[in-house]
């Protein structure tokens, strides 16, 4: 197995993708869908697979069940060369699974199960010895997924990554835990880039002004802030100032995992030493390509595809 230069830690699950729903059935009825398939999902594995497609040496850290769906995840990682040394299999819990309902416009709704592996992810499932010299980046996907991970494991994991010289990146989901940004005070000083959606950031900070949002995160210790703005693109706030990047206009088949693929593009740019403006544009291309097939990032094929896409769209 490879020695990863990038580790992705956090949400790992299986998605049951239901495509092309025209209407939801009433009780006792049957409705038709264009397609139903099984796929890996969750922010951490979405990022890991995207980074592997881009040619990076990647490892995955997370918690899954010792069941057929957990094995499906491991097999998928093996297909793309993603190391699963950091993937903990729990015999007592089922692998987290979501049903993703995709309408004809490509927009999604989710059904997720309670009490599965994601919520249980904690420090006992994390091997800090996997954080070694030579690690280039650690990406957390996502904060506010598991209370025990956030409150007990996140700061030590980020601190260890910084001690070996890695860049640290953290995605976010909506706070269902109740402790908000203040509850992660020990972790923020070890975050180089925090990458929330603009809506998430507005809810967390109570501000609709991007500059004020960035200032809120940075006063807590996060070094740089990148806001994902969907069809409006992205905007980055760093010590060098503010950089905005427009989104690419492409046909949308499925938006599942688009933000995760964008984050993977960012991490790739960071470890390759791209300037921030170039990194944002590269990440936007990765996200745009991921939209064009059903499944979290299924539209992304490889680095050559991204480079060819960018070559047809001069900056």
Mean pLDDT level: 93
Helical proportion?
25-40%
What's the alpha carbon Rg, rounded to whole Å? 18 Å
Task: Please trace the helix and strand order, writing H or E for each element.
Answer: EEEHEHEEEHEHEEHHEEEHHH
Spatial order of the strands forming the largest sheet: 5-4-1-8-9-10-11-12-13
Short description:
By secondary structure, this protein is an alpha/beta fold.
Would you mind describing this structure in some detail?
The chain is α/β, with parallel strands linked by helices and 315 residues long. The protein has helices at residues 43-53, 68-80, 117-120, 147-163, 198-205, 210-220, 258-271, 276-290, 303-311, and strands at 6-10, 13-21, 35-41, 58-65, 83-90, 97-103, 108-112, 137-143, 167-172, 193-195, 224-228, 234-238, 241-245. Helix 7 (258-271) runs antiparallel to helix 8 (276-290) and helix 8 (276-290) crosses helix 9 (303-311).
SSE blueprint:
Blueprint: E1 6-10, E2 13-21, E3 35-41, H1 43-53, E4 58-65, H2 68-80, E5 83-90, E6 97-103, E7 108-112, H3 117-120, E8 137-143, H4 147-163, E9 167-172, E10 193-195, H5 198-205, H6 210-220, E11 224-228, E12 234-238, E13 241-245, H7 258-271, H8 276-290, H9 303-311
Parallel strand pairs: 1-4, 1-8, 2-6, 4-5, 8-9, 9-10, 10-11
Antiparallel strand pairs: 2-3, 6-7, 11-12, 12-13
Helix pairs in contact: 1-7, 5-6, 7-8, 8-9
